[in-house]
Amino acid sequence: MRSILPEISLDISPDPSSLTPDTVGDWLREHRVEEVECVTPDFAGIGRGKVMPSLKFAAFTPTFLPTSLFFLTITGDYPGLDNFREYDTDADLWLRPDLATTRAVPWAQDRSVQVIHDVCDRDGELIGFAPRSVLHRVLGLYAEKGWQPIVAPEIEFYLTKPNTDPDYPLEPPVGRSGRPAQKAQAYSIAAVDEYDSVIEHIYDYAAALGLDIDTMIQEAGAAQLEVNLRHGDPLDLADQVFLFKRLIREAALRCDCYATFMAKPMEQQPGSAMHIHQSVVERATGRNVFSREDGEASDLFRHFIGGQQTYLKAGCCLMAPYVNSYRRLVPYMTAPINLDWGRDNRTTGLRVPISGPEARRVENRVVGADANPYLAIAATLAAGYLGMVKGIEPREEVRTDSYDRDRELPYGLLEAVEWLKTTPELQEVLGTSFSQLYMAVKTHEYEEFMRVISPWEREHLLLNV
């Protein structure tokens, strides 16, 4: 596996706290930056935006995008918005730069930086349906209670051979040994070494962007890797996942392969998750509210779990957002089928890892790698918030194999959307306008999928029914 495209390594990511509207122009000139990518995530987590000369960006010339970009389905279509007449005019929305997110674009041919933007109206108020705004909203509710959530995502993905024809199944790439990757190689150092060129690119790009990788491991699938990020502020970590997905794809392309974050890209292989570790601290003191003074689990810890068990089924369409997502959520394939909780129990949807009182946390194992990180983190924190403010008690801890227990999670996308429709409490925390639009988009995507006839149907139904 070799690098096939030229690149310019740019170590020009600034200190996140160093840029202000008054200093950004000087910084761009000092580092001879030619272009600035103004990006923001849509519902799918795809970066939308514009590229402009750095001089124009430094002048803070207003940048706009049409409203309709945020309602695109994954196929590029638009859902029917008959119930959303306020968006009929497809008015412009203002992109407001978050200068703390300024980072290099090390794979670009010119000296470039990327800046993540919030989406606002003409008065500078956040637009409620933009994914970054949804997470802002949930974090604001925590702040009102004097709480600060802390998260740590783990991102799984597959490397595959290039695949330009969707009629053909994906295949693992050939590594440096000349052999295709094998499954059942979890935590194998030799398996990681097979793709050392891709991994070196990932590390180099992450360093150029100023992103910290905690660990990288070989997962259970053939050429399936996992990147673990350091814990921190949920908005910052969502930004990091957003950036990591792009840099990992770029690293793979430089090495003549693909990186995919599909939840279930290959038959007979495990799916790819984005597990999210969650805790909550007091904003004033930094104390973990999941632990009491004596080190034992607190009421808030139990109530956080209770909220997850009560509301995550309704939030599943944000954590498993596509028809393919539910192919991952099957028994005995490293993904959960319910919202049981247990200490150090990887068969449950909610796992409490072994840790001391200061690091007591809950791992959400339902989220797929295909999820928009802003929306997935918002959904899981929203469920925990509702549990904490409502005092919801969890079910009994499960100490056995949770796969032997009843399925609780939805079987498919449409069922998941229906659960959100009937859960107004979660809609309110996420934002009602966002929730209504998101459900319309997901319903339309499901209807698009149903128009496609699969090979399975032709094989088993063509001459047999």
Report on this structure.
The chain is 31% helix and 18% strand. The chain has 465 residues and is α+β, with helices and mostly antiparallel strands. The protein folds into two domains: 24-130, Glutamine synthetase, N-terminal domain (Ubiquitin-like (UB roll), Roll), CATH 3.10.20; 138-459, Creatine Kinase, Chain A, domain 2, CATH 3.30.590. Helix 5 packs across helix 6 (234-254) and helix 7 crosses helix 10 (373-390).
Topology record:
Elements: H1 24-30, E1 35-41, E2 47-53, H2 54-58, E3 63-66, E4 92-97, E5 103-104, E6 112-120, H3 131-144, E7 147-160, H4 189-193, H5 196-209, E8 213-218, E9 224-229, H6 234-254, E10 258-260, E11 274-282, H7 299-311, H8 316-319, H9 325-328, E12 341-343, E13 350-352, E14 362-364, H10 373-390, H11 413-421, H12 424-430, H13 432-449, H14 455-461
Parallel strand pairs: 1-6, 12-13
Antiparallel strand pairs: 1-2, 3-4, 4-6, 5-6, 7-9, 7-10, 7-11, 8-9, 11-14, 13-14
Helix pairs in contact: 3-10, 5-6, 7-10, 10-12, 11-13, 12-13
